[in-house]
Amino acid sequence: MTARPIIAFAAMLASVAGCTSPNTGATVTPEAPPQDEFPYVAQLMVHRCGTLDCHGSVYRNLRVYGDEGLRYSPNDPNARPCIPASTTGDEVAQDYDSVVGLEPESLSTVVANHGADPESLTLIAKSTGLAAHQGGTLFHPGDDAYVCMTSWLAGSTNTTACLDALPLKVCGLPAATSVDGGAP
Amino acid sequence: MRRSCAVMVALAALTALSAGCDPVKSDAINALGGETPGVRNGPLHRPGQPCTLCHDGEIGDPPAFSVAGTIYETPADASVAAGATVSMLDSVDAGYEAGTNSAGNFYVTPGQWSPRFPIVRVVVSSVGGGTVVTMQSDVGRNGSCATCHFDPAGLDSPGHVYLALPDGGTPP
Predict the structure, then answer these.
(1) ipTM higher than 0.95?
(2) Cα–Cα distance for residue pair A183/A102, rounded to 1 Å
(3) Could you give phi then psi for residue A131, rounded to 5 degrees?
(4) Residue B41 lies in a domain
(5) Is A82's CB within 8 Å of B172's CB?
(6) Are residues B4 and B54 both part of a single domain?
(7) How close is the nearest chain A Cα to the Cα of B39, in Å?
(8) Enclosing domain of residue B58
(9) Mean pLDDT of all residues in chain B?
(10) Chain B contacts in chain A segment 64-123 (CB below 8 A)
(11) Tens of pLDDT along B41-89?
């Protein structure tokens, strides 16, 4: 007999809890991979992901700026794809924010575990074909692009793999030249 | 048999209806405007527009194109490059070569070539091969040149595809 009021009260509490608004002031400070090595990763993403018909578009959640696609250039209205023929520091910074801000909690877990289980990130799951991706499978475990991305997540970027994953020339110049903005 | 036929017809109608209800696509097509007076639907119409927006193979639409676009002579004017050759190579090393018509248009049907994106190499050459221009980036997934190559050139577009700079030099 006494159980009914208790159940009703519990149900009411649950419904109130369900209506509670999320804390709009909550922030996450991700444990992010190193920014100083990111220009190599950024250039790989510019080439593989950032064409104007894919993530080089302001309409994408993961927005990629760079020399081969969408330019981020508040102070140079004459910038165009491949003009200037390198990815700038401002563009690398935008790309870093795009990637780090995608899934900050999951990224922090991967980084804290020294790059273990990178496929738990949508970034890697989509690019390796483990998750649906309209752009298809771009990287395969073990190839240069995959090593570049995952080594960065592990905290020690294999810059050789990053450069090897690029074509010999980007925007008419040797690929290493494109890794310009913010490169150490 | 009659019942399964009816179901298939209903499904086809539903598919056509849902395709026609895509407001983003409808808005994009409407934004292209009408046909140029005196140019009827066909290989010479709508140069410089994103062909696969309509030529996408959906029910009720015109024939599908896997890749299509328009080649111009220079960046500054609208003179089209008739008789140019567009050579393409996809991510599994399958290639195709198409020529432009008098409107500067070229088009490839899926039956001729269905590239596995990205298309990693695009080379455009003028009649006789005097001018050869290589595209600087990959084509990620969209078969319409004009999806990315639209005018005016800016932060998000290199402008229309052209063969030569006004001074006779080749594009970067």
Answers:
(1) no
(2) 23
(3) -125, 155
(4) no
(5) yes
(6) no
(7) 29
(8) 48-172
(9) 89
(10) 68-73, 77, 79-83, 85
(11) 999 999 999 999 999 988 777 999 999 999 999 998 889 999 999 999 9
